[in-house]
């Protein structure tokens, strides 16, 4: 028997994963590693190894370099592949370049128009045309693509978002929606949902607009906070202290500049969002804990020591803070009325 015939008859380990809502199965040799699996994915789906991320049930997020971990560790587990093929990246780059060229052409045409006196700041108009979302694109395979496009247009025109993007000089090639089915995982440990993704520091931002059952749309402010989170990834990749400082700064700026809804924040130093849903990417509710970014990174609601809080602890902490502020407000009111203070 030749070596090729021996390899053909050797038992194989089937590894099944989902990518963009489609299921794929690769038959690997029993002694293959995750690096071998990553190389095979690159050969079949043309997704570069350094762009691949594997969300594996009970194991969390795995990404390059994958190392010598045996591929048998992934057998019979639910796996979601996150990654963009080389063709898709090239297409998005071409779309971004085309959009930028159109903007340059329009800017040149505007400069050649006769001067018209207006109270509109021309420098601000130029910045808003530069620091914005170049292309908006709903998913045509999902229900109500026109409504999704209107939702994306609302985000682009949001006064707070426009102010923050201009202040930080953010320019995003493509703002699109994500398919909830492709980014939702349920197991006996709970349900994991990804609300947003930022690819290549602003080349593409994906947002979860629709509900899991495609029967409606998620809360606008929750989606807007997710967008603030993803915009912070234009500067910082990992969820470290620098990332969170920038993320909360953007949230405060967006809330303050949102004149349409009377923008406000709790105070000058802290932004508080009362919704139970918090924007996150590559992570979620796993094993009863809120994990932001996967890989052990702490997220919103994490303690100063970096540990993750459970959903119940986060809600309880928020309620405790509200009660504390109410007691302080009542105490100050009583002091003004009677000139005394409780001890």
From TrEMBL:
Transmembrane segments: none annotated. It comes from the Eukaryota. InterPro entries: Ubiquitin-like_domsf (IPR029071), WLM_dom (IPR013536). It holds the Pfam family WLM. Residues 124-324 form the WLM domain. One of its GO terms (molecular function) is proteasome binding. PANTHER family: DNA-DEPENDENT METALLOPROTEASE WSS1 HOMOLOG 2 (PTHR47795:SF1), UBIQUITIN AND WLM DOMAIN-CONTAINING METALLOPROTEASE SPCC1442.07C (PTHR47795). This is Uu.00g073480.m01.CDS01.
């Amino acid at each position: 028997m030749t070596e090729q015939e021996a390899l053909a008859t050797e038992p194989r380990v089937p590894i099944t994963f989902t990518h963009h809502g489609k299921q794929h199965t690769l038959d690997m040799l029993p002694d293959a590693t995750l690096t071998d699996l990553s190389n095979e994915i690159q050969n079949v789906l043309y997704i570069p190894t350094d762009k691949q991320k594997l969300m594996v049930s009970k194991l969390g997020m795995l990404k390059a370099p994958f190392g010598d971990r045996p591929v048998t560790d992934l057998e019979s587990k639910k796996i979601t592949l996150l990654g963009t093929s080389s063709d898709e990246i090239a297409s998005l780059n071409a779309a971004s370049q085309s959009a930028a060229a159109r903007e340059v052409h329009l800017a040149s045409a505007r400069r050649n128009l006769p001067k018209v006196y207006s109270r509109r700041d021309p420098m601000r108009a130029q910045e808003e045309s530069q620091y914005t979302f170049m292309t908006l694109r709903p998913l045509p395979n999902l229900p109500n693509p026109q409504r999704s496009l209107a939702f994306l247009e609302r985000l682009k025109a949001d006064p707070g978002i426009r102010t923050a993007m201009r202040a930080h000089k953010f320019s995003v090639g493509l703002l699109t929606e994500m398919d909830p089915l492709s980014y939702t995982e349920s197991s006996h440990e709970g349900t994991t949902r990804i609300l947003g993704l930022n690819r290549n520091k602003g080349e593409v931002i994906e947002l979860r607009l629709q509900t899991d059952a495609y029967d409606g749309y998620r809360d606008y402010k929750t989606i807007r906070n997710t967008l603030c989170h993803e915009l912070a990834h234009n500067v910082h990749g990992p969820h470290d202290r620098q990332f969170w400082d920038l993320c909360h700064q953007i949230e405060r700026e967006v809330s303050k500049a949102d004149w349409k809804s009377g923008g406000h924040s709790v105070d000058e130093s802290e932004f508080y969002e009362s919704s139970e849903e918090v924007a996150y990417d590559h992570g979620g509710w796993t094993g009863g804990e809120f994990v932001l970014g996967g890989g052990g990174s702490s997220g919103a609601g994490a303690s100063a020591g970096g540990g993750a809080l459970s959903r119940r602890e986060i809600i309880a902490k928020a309620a405790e803070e509200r009660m504390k502020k109410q007691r302080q407000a009542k105490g100050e009111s009583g002091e003004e009325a009677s000139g005394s203070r409780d001890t």
